[in-house]
Amino acid sequence: MNYQKLLEQIHKKKSFLCVGLDSDINKIPQFLRENINPILDFNKAIIDATAPYVVAYKLNTAFYEVLGYEGWLQLQSTINYIKFNHPDILVIADAKRGDIGNTSYQYAKAFFEIMDADAVTVAPYMGKDSVEPFLKYKDKWIIILNLTSNESASDLQTLHIEENGDLVYEHMLKKALEWGATCNKSMFVVGATKAESLMFVRKIVPDHFLLIPGIGAQSGSLEEVAKYGFNEYCGLIVNNSRGIIFASNEKDFPKVAREKALEMQQKMEEILRKNFII
Amino acid sequence: MNYQKLLEQIHKKKSFLCVGLDSDINKIPQFLRENINPILDFNKAIIDATAPYVVAYKLNTAFYEVLGYEGWLQLQSTINYIKFNHPDILVIADAKRGDIGNTSYQYAKAFFEIMDADAVTVAPYMGKDSVEPFLKYKDKWIIILNLTSNESASDLQTLHIEENGDLVYEHMLKKALEWGATCNKSMFVVGATKAESLMFVRKIVPDHFLLIPGIGAQSGSLEEVAKYGFNEYCGLIVNNSRGIIFASNEKDFPKVAREKALEMQQKMEEILRKNFII
Q1: d(C-alpha A243, C-alpha A264), whole Å
Q2: Nearest-CA neighbor of A126 among A107, A141, A112, A150?
Q3: Residues 88..117 of A with a Cβ closer than 8 Å to B: which?
Q4: How far is CA B191 from the centre of its chain?
Q5: Per-residue pLDDT reduced to its tens digit, A28-82
Q6: What pLDDT score was predicted for residue A214?
Q7: B95-144 tens-digit pLDDT
Q8: Which pLDDT score, from 0 to 100, does residue B219 have?
Q9: ipTM of this predicted complex?
Q10: Residues of A in contact with B214 (CB under 8 A)
């Protein structure tokens, strides 16, 4: 999916919502757990219920890997299901991979060619080598961890680099631009709990999409995020996982998930209008 | 596997060699590629041939994930094979994961409980949250990326932190100690191409094991690494992948891998003796 198509989706659905399929086997409704493919069945129901309101699904690989190869199979099947039924929705593999040289190419191939995800999250600790192979794919996206929503982001990301005075996350943004991470093939993860920092991020990458986790369970505010993070085209994809997918534990879980997604979409529509984006 | 047992293995085998099972489907001998489980068959042959000379096997997950869920199955089967036949050898899942909170716990569970690896590599960009869940397991190891062997490590790892004057990798070592990454449950990845930097690493973590990639294909020198990296108990695990597992492409590949592993072991024995470690 390219930049233009993503913008079209945002306009069409009046939404910049990403639903995180963090489909923890211990949190999905009890009655599904005895199924042969419980996570896949859960995901299908959530996808069918929420697709009209979302522009992206994000699959956190940890929740699939914890089920061994059967989990991996359900991860792949979920992606196939989205691609077949909702080809206009961006599929993000939230894998936070990051390796070098030949290994990095293998990861790019694994997620973009074999799994056919549209986007994959990558950690930049090892520098350019861990990012570059992902940039070679047309209409695929690398989403680079930048300023994360967790408390211990301060262990590294918000310290200063002596050589240039930048904060580490600012430095990493500038580096990414040097590496060729243009706005039509790369995004950055910026936590919603750091809404004001979005201003500083926007100074360096005005046109890039930012993937914002931390709305809902991690209690960031959508209004704050839009205030500091919007660019003239929107430029945000905001993720919510638990607040939607685990909103009910009963048979009505797809219906309740749908209501929660709709609620988010309506908030987003209001904010998009207020900012004259739609 | 605990610290003491790892030391015993080093003494018994007179080796600190790790063989990297970077078993690229495009590089294993042609005649194996039509097998139902080509990677598993390749790995078993390499393991049977080299086990007497190695203290650890490192499985780089990228080369398995690129084969989809069947790759994941062969990854798991390889680990099962090592654990059953060579329970004294450390199994490292070179996964370079790194996430936060609940997700980080899922990764720890996936690799330590489900996959039953002894150790897993983790990227520290997100700070304490991405490391802590792995420290809660007894006799399991987290191996934290610190100073990697690739050129673009200089994009971040070898810059200075303004707040304390440390290089980023030094800062991350000190942070890890604060997080409780003691030497009986954590190691650090330090590239062999940066042998002199091992001196600075050793000042901060004198007792920890260091996992050293970059010998062989990436052309680090074993003598240099030992000179700057040894502590009185050895304290190093040195990895070689391609130089051993792909030393021959023919039917004789296990025999040639055995010879290459033996050659490395003999060099290591000599260096261990010279340094009065054995």
Answers
A1: 10
A2: A107
A3: 96-104, 106-107, 109-111, 114-115
A4: 11
A5: 999 999 999 999 999 999 999 999 999 999 999 999 999 999 999 999 999 999 9
A6: 75
A7: 999 999 889 999 999 999 999 999 999 999 999 999 999 999 999 999 99
A8: 56
A9: 0.96
A10: none
Domain membership of residue B156 as a residue range: 3-274
**Could you tell me the pTM of the whole model?**
0.97
Partner-chain residue, chosen from A60, A68, A163, that has the shortest CB–CB distance to B114: A68
- Measured in whole angstroms, how far is the alpha carbon of residue B195 from the centre of its chain? 17
Given a cut of 90, is residue A185 above it in pLDDT? yes
CATH number reported for the structural domain that contains residue A35 in this entry: 3.20.20.70
For B107, how many CA atoms within 13 A lie in the half-sphere containing its CB?
31
B58 tagged catalytic: no
**Nearest-10 Cα torsion for A98, B57, B199, B127:** 40
How many domains does one find in chain A? 1
Q: Is A12 exposed, middle or buried (0-12, 13-18, 19+ CB in 10 A)?
A: exposed
DSSP helix/strand/coil, A163:
coil
**A-chain residues near B98 (CB < 8 A):** 96, 98, 123, 125
Distance from CA of A144 to the nearest CA of B (A): 11
Candidate from A66, A114, A165 with C-beta closest to B114? A66
Q: What is the DSSP string of A64-129?
A: HHTTHHHHHHHHHHHHHHHHHH-TTSEEEEEEEE---HHHHHHHHIIIIIIS--SEEEE--TTGGG
